[in-house]
Amino acid sequence: MPEEAGNLNFPKQRSRECAGRFGRAFSAAIFLFFASTILPGSPAIAAGEIVSARLWPAQEYTRLTLESQSPITHNVFTISGPDRLVLDLEDIDSNAAVENLPSKISPDDPYVSGIRIGRFKPGTVRLVLDLKTQVNPQTFVLQPIGEYGYRLVLDIYPAQPADPIIALLENNKPATVPAPPAAAPPPATDRSAAIDPKAPKKPAPAQPEMVRLITVAIDAGHGGEDPGAKGRSGTYEKHVTLAIARKLKTLVDAEPNMRGVLTRDGDYYVPLATRVVKAQKLDADLFVSIHADAFIKPHARGSSVFALSERGATSAAASWLARKENEADLIGGVNMDNVSDPVVRSVIYDLAQTATINDSMKLGRSVLGEIGDVNDLHKAHVEQAGFAVLKAPDIPSILVETAFLTNPEEEKRLKDERYQDKLARAILAGIRKYFAANPPLSRSPLARNFSNEYRNAKTQ
């Protein structure tokens, strides 16, 4: 009898040997797997990947946005002598999106002169931003929304920021201008004063009266991270609105008693509340926000004008549009750590806002009538909805939807500079008609007191 046959322990012993060999092989495989995925220097070390890197320079601040599929652990600090800003990205490998950042630096960027990229340590990519001045950096993370994933936002503000309102005024007409001088009196024939120094002197001519200019705040919708609507051929709303806003400002400035100011004059994002506060600090007489509409169906067409509603939208479409426009802060990116809820007296707010809405409706009807000569109207009356950008309690405010970008025919028109000019001229004609029937007056103390309360709370 073979020895194996007589050994009753053989099957158990053979089983233990096989299990031992299998266990050692399995352990080796597990070790090789983890070694290839988490050891330093491995290509798969990154927990996330930068899928896009964008830079938005502006006079008020420069914004750097890094988009990824998962939140990015980061650290930011400044170094002096020379001034530099360091951003460390943990568990991230450098790729083409990051490496192309230096090429996106604009010579006109007021704060950043260059970007250098390197590996600080295994698993950490370091971005060093060479600065033109001392800065106050702020970072925050935006949650995924729409087509965007997680976004790490670095806002680079100057350490000693200039008043943005003063900057706006520097490139505009002064707040007051001399009134036209009266006709000069005929020359005096009595030369006694020249002969006799003791003769009584005639009073000096009165100084010309100063007349306040009408200030029109012109708001180009969207911008920067928030492109707004997109046409079928790739036209972005933010570019169309800025082009029309600039044309309207040029036309307003050419008026003898008006000046126009832009809430943004470049491709960057301005929070909705900040747009309102800018207009208030300028004591604007009107606020006109320019947009280009969008809808889920391409056949929607026509221009519209909206005013604020306190009680609800006048149509389902107006409600949908207001909700979409009010999401701009989520898309454009606002640091919620810096936002505080203003505490105001509701009675004053109601009184001031109700009067302003009535004026806004008058302004809207004047502008809508003029736009109807340039384009078909989506609705023949001014609609109302709860647009956040129209909530200046003391400034008549309207939102103009110039046309539907999602309509291929209207998208083609909106890209045409001549058509943009026609729209701007129509808006100006509506503004002139409004002021012809409603001359600008000094605001009531009630509205002005609330205006100061509101903007002080917003800027704290």
Main beta sheet: strand number and arrangement? 6 strands, mixed
Helix count equals 13
> How would you state the average pLDDT, rounded?
79
Q: Class by helix and strand content?
A: alpha/beta
Overall outline: globular
* Element-by-element helix/strand order: HHEEEEHEEEEHEHEEHEHEEHHHEEHHH
Poorly predicted parts: 1-19, 25-46, 188-195, 341-351, 442-451
- The percentage of residues in β strands lies in 15-25%
Q: What is the tally of beta strands? A: 16
Distance between the termini: 98 Å
Which strands sit side by side, in order, in the main sheet? 12-11-13-16-14-15
What is the rounded Rg? 32 Å
Helix content: 25-40%
Quick structural summary:
It is built from 13 helices and 16 strands. It has 460 residues and is an alpha/beta fold.
Molecular structure report:
- The structure is a single chain.
- The protein is α/β, with parallel strands linked by helices.
- 35% of the residues lie in helices and 23% in strands.
- The protein is built from 13 helices and 16 strands.
- It has helices at 3-6, 10-38, 96-99, 164-170, 192-195, 237-254, 272-281, 316-326, 328-332, 346-371, 408-414, 417-437, 445-459, and strands at residues 50-56, 62-68, 74-79, 84-90, 112-121, 124-131, 135-142, 150-158, 176-178, 210-212, 214-220, 258-262, 286-293, 304-308, 383-385, 397-404.
- The relative contact order is 0.10.
